[in-house]
User: Fold this.
Amino acid sequence: MNKDNDKNKMNADEAPMNPENGNAARSPKADSNNTGDANEDIIKSATTGDYKYGFVTDIDTHVIPKGLNEDVVRYISQVKGEPEWLLDFRLKAYRHWLTMKMPRWAHLDIPEIDYQAISYYAAPKQKEGPKNLDEVDPELRKTFDKLGISLEEQMRLSGIAVDAVMDSVSVKTTYKERLAELGVIFCSISEAVRDYPDLVRKYLGSVVPYRDNFFAALNSAVFSDGSFVYIPKGVRCPMELSTYFRINAAETGQFERTLIVADDDAYVSYLEGCTAPMRDENQLHAAIVEIVVEDRAEVKYSTVQNWYPGDKDGKGGIYNFVTKRGLCRGDFSKLSWTQVETGSAITWKYPSCVLQGDNSVGEFYSVALTNNYQQADTGTKMIHIGKNSRSTIVSKGISAGHSQNSYRGEVKVVPKAANCRNYTQCDSLLLSSTSGAHTFPRIDVQNETSVVEHEATTSKINEDQIFYCNQRGISTEDAIGLIVNGYAKEVMAKLPMEFAVEAQKLLSISLEGSVG
Amino acid sequence: MSSIKQYTDIFHAYGSAIDAHSAPVLNALRPDALKALENATMPRKGDEDYETTDLNELFAPDYGVNINRVNLTADPAEAFRCDVPNMSTSPYYFFNDVYHHDADTLASRGDGVIVSSLRKAAIEHPELVARHYARIAPLSNPQVALNTLLAQDGIFVYVPRNVVLERTLQLVNIMNVAQPVMAVRRVLVVLEDGAQARMLVCDHTQSRDVQCLSNQVIEISLGEGATFDYYDLEATASSSRRASTLWAQQAAGSNLLIDGITLANGITRNGYHISINGEHAETSLLGMAIASGEQHVDNHTYIGHNVGHCHSNELFKYVLDDRATGAFSGKILVAENAPKVEAYQSNRNVCASPAAKMFTKPQLEIYTDDVKCSHGATVGQLDQDALFYMRTRGIPEHDARTLLMQAFMSDVIDGVRIEALKDRLHHLVEKRFAGALADCGECSGKCLRNKK
Assistant:
């Protein structure tokens, strides 16, 4: 215990968040983008091309020293006051991780990552849990204001329940009371471990076991926080649940873990947004999302991923290596993934559906936009185990600048999965001659009654359409924005309203400078 | 345990015998091949692009290699005719991997066309062969390296500038052995600028009970504006193993058609690796497989568009019955600075029985924007509505199914550019679906007659 206290002190001294640094990272352009009306915003950011969310919040952050060893894992567990079983889970994962090597099969150029140069825990320092919004750290609230998810606004206007995870610790979950009335549990995973240990223990690692892959093992060992959602039998969650992730402290990794359980006949729509400050060095984000869908339940999971993508020359940016998987365990269950990926220097993730229940449905809608030197290798897996299970995959890739954008997917039908149906469509749009678009699907069908289709096209943005827009006085930049938004519309339509608007803006912003 | 070692051991023990029965041009590359194999391993099941086929296992059995070129005395032309009706061809034979010399019918043409044993050509025209031999197929591929290490002979086709070879060349590979043998064949085709030729390769076996492996490497080099058709028809038996890789290089304006047909086989792995290095080149890569029993057919394709303004079209179709497994992995690559490329790939598969399995992996890798590329893959069944329609008109279910499957295959056959061969293929496919194996009917050799 004493030892840990020492560590605490040491870290407080080392906390890298000094005000000068924080302000230095803020460029005047970014400031101007934060004011003024929305339309001008887009045009300005489209021409100057700065990352809108690149500010650093000057918040007292508690960071532990860099490096990873068993003590760090024990320390994280202890700080969070976790029970013995969870510590065991972490240690098992850590020991397994030591035996693994980082995979290299993706179509990505990933520099060596020094896992000992990362700090595995960073928490905004806080007094004892805030009783109401006034008690939340004002700096933190300013951050959320900048992010456009002011807690008050959220509470008052949109009715979205927000769980904001800053660096690694969940800061505040709004709308908890109303959800509690219905028996919906929406809280940070640490709270869930404390308050609902049986539920967490039952489901944690049941969809993504710690042995699953290199990053899953790493996350299982050091995950610091995340969200936990449980929708009881027959409950239709009345509002959209939302989590905002933000990496703030330098040289830290973010390892959040999300666990969503929809019991029989339940429904929930869950949104996830991510931003990070601008930094020269790369930061690692290795999260796990696990979803369990029981009989006739439905989960809709939407992501707008806008981690810092690095600057124009590909310097800095987030490595987004995430394992997302849902288990449609019940009959007639449904899981729908929608993602808009515009950020991150490197995106490497495959939100997947294991369609175990008969008549279960999996959906994957994705827009992945890469610009400058961004790289993305993303797609999905649909594993058909249940009879009559169906899946739809719609993936739209957009590559600009010098970026590389890959779709990688797997559709597997096991021998006993009769009458399965899959339809896959993945289109790539190329906006520059130096960018790349690649498609790597795998189809493995072991049942003769199943029908699996895959279609992919790759083409350049249509010059006739741009010309048509130009003719009518729309600048080329705006025309591209329009065309791309039209191209992505099929996926955007699947996003909840609030996110769709933001995602459309994001697409336009991320396309900056891609003309010519 | 790598299966390569037993073959390098053979080389270490009998290297001089191998050299003695071959030509210096071919021998010159053996040390390089040996070096390439030193640390190489044959791809195993599950490796990228080898998801369902274990090459290591394919090469693992203790196969004999015919180092001393023991020749067969029989006259293959008498024993085995593989005629295509209404098509006159210039036939050449391989018994296992031994080239049959009697049939050099083109030697007297006097226009510089060479169609002969690779060994003979390498002795008579060493510079010409050295300029092309193992230039396209890289030794970094263990299959190619192994073939280069052991290949003593093969066939060499050379068509000089602007010469048109009207008669189709027909190469008949016949396996006829008493014990397990690995046939190491090499095919080298060189067409100079503006040349035209067509080649039909038929793979057969007369020893249905002996497991043998044919390990072949085909290299095709097309000059500017050259046109070449390559039809590869495999009708072997369940004991047959085949590991074949084809490497082609196309110069500007050349036109290449490849049609790989598997009607009957044991385990087959075909690789097609095509590099398009000149603008306005066209490539058609067609393939089909009809597999039943325990047959396994794996086609791997790669078409690299290294320059702009070229066109490729790829179509592979499979019908899988019983416990047959099929695999297709195909990649289309468009390099940077290769604008106006059009590349299409399609893979359609029908699984006709509950235990049939299909694995498919179509891939696009595009590094420039001004392209039109697409790929599609489907795995499904015959159209139930069409079946029902035919049955309402009094066609028995079995016949209806056969008709539909034939129709399914017809667009692969329609890509064939020789009318007589097209008819023949329709006929063979029909017979294959009707249950009778793709026996070449008129052939006195009756390569498949031992079946019954």
